[in-house]
Amino acid sequence: MSAWIKVLMAGNTFIYRLTGGVLGSRMAGQSVLLLHSVGSKSGKLYTTPLNFYRDGENYVLVASNWGGKSHPGWFFNLMRQPDTTIQVKKQVLPVKASEASESDYERLWQQVTSQNPFYTRYQSQTSRKIPIVILTPRK
User: Fold this and answer.
1) Is 99 in a helix, a strand, or coil?
2) pLDDT tens readout for residues 81-139
3) Residue 25 has what DSSP assignment?
């Protein structure tokens, strides 16, 4: 990830937290949440602003990493420690992460690419299959 993207994400996270999502919860027409995850190697707490989509009560994330050669760090963190929290505007929600099953993948891929066609371009830039992560609210 480039230094510019890291600065942009850190700035968005700061503004999102400061304003309770009044600012920073939409970028380029897409809804944004803050994902809290624990580093799978470092054990460090990370907060990452990510586009999200809804599928019923679930939140859907796309681990595109801008079409990079590997999955983003947050994906590995969630697969190792799936119980986490997200912030959607002012609301902090406990969720459990899981990778979309094959049966759900195609349906969700169609849904997210219809809302954000950049994912199709990102998929064409990489040989890896871009994962879709489902965040299910925990009761």
Assistant:
1) strand
2) 999 999 999 999 999 999 999 999 999 999 999 999 999 999 999 999 999 999 999 98
3) S
Is the CB of residue 93 less than 8 Å from the CB of residue 84? no
What is the distance between the alpha carbons of residues 133 and 94, in angstroms, rounded to a whole number?
15
Q: How many domains are there within the chain?
A: 1
| Mean pLDDT of the region 13-32 | 87
Backbone φ and ψ of 38, nearest 5° = -110, 130
Q: What is the pLDDT of residue 1?
A: 60
Helix (H) or strand (E) holding 84: strand 83-88
| Pair 99, 79: CB distance under 8 Å | yes
- Give 61's strand partners: 133
Does residue 78 contact residue 84 with C-beta atoms inside 8 Å?
Answer: yes
Residue 107, C-beta contacts closer than 8 angstroms, at least 6 positions apart: none
Helix, strand, coil: what percent of the chain each, to 5? Answer: 35, 35, 30
Q: Is 52 in contact with 71 (CB distance < 8 Å)?
A: no
Q: Please report, for the domain that includes residue 15, its CATH number.
A: 2.30.110.10
pTM of the predicted structure, to 2 decimals: 0.89
Name the residue range of residue 72's domain: 3-137
